[in-house]
Amino acid sequence: MRELSTKPYLIRAIYEWCIDCGATPYLSVTVDANTRVPMEYVKEGQIVLNISPDATRNLTIGNDLIQFSARFAGVSRELSIPIQAVSAIFAKENGQGLVFPKPEPRAGAAGGEDAAVDSDGKSPPSGSNGGRPRLQVVK
């Protein structure tokens, strides 16, 4: 059985938390050839998107893709974002959320893409667990 990434589950959890708190969930996305977003809004290979229920239609956060439609300058556009392209999800109002570091190619490494970083950009301390990410409570 293949191991599933925790990243889409964490994105869905932070999205739900934002909605429950009355906050506006935003995605930061690293745009590549597989990312369908309005390219005129991409700056330095990044785009930040409001994914609140008021800003999107038919939002689906799947295990491989995030898909929805949204209006840009009054024109409805269909967006498709690979989960790997998501670099952060956070609440607009307070910046709280998760930042996902770029996976670094390492021979034999597992789980590197899912290491959480707090909103200040600090990586969790590594322990004696073979370099694998571990959960850290950030207050």
From TrEMBL:
<protein>
    <submittedName>
        <fullName>ClpXP protease specificity-enhancing factor</fullName>
    </submittedName>
</protein>
<dbReference type="GO" id="GO:0008233">
    <property type="term" value="F:peptidase activity"/>
</dbReference>
<keyword id="KW-0645">Protease</keyword>
<dbReference type="InterPro" id="IPR036760">
    <property type="entry name" value="SspB-like_sf"/>
</dbReference>
<feature type="region of interest" description="Disordered">
    <location>
        <begin position="100"/>
        <end position="139"/>
    </location>
</feature>
<dbReference type="GO" id="GO:0005840">
    <property type="term" value="C:ribosome"/>
</dbReference>
<keyword id="KW-0378">Hydrolase</keyword>
<dbReference type="InterPro" id="IPR007481">
    <property type="entry name" value="SspB"/>
</dbReference>
<dbReference type="GO" id="GO:0045732">
    <property type="term" value="P:positive regulation of protein catabolic process"/>
</dbReference>
<dbReference type="GO" id="GO:0005829">
    <property type="term" value="C:cytosol"/>
</dbReference>
<dbReference type="GO" id="GO:0006508">
    <property type="term" value="P:proteolysis"/>
</dbReference>
<dbReference type="Pfam" id="PF04386">
    <property type="entry name" value="SspB"/>
</dbReference>
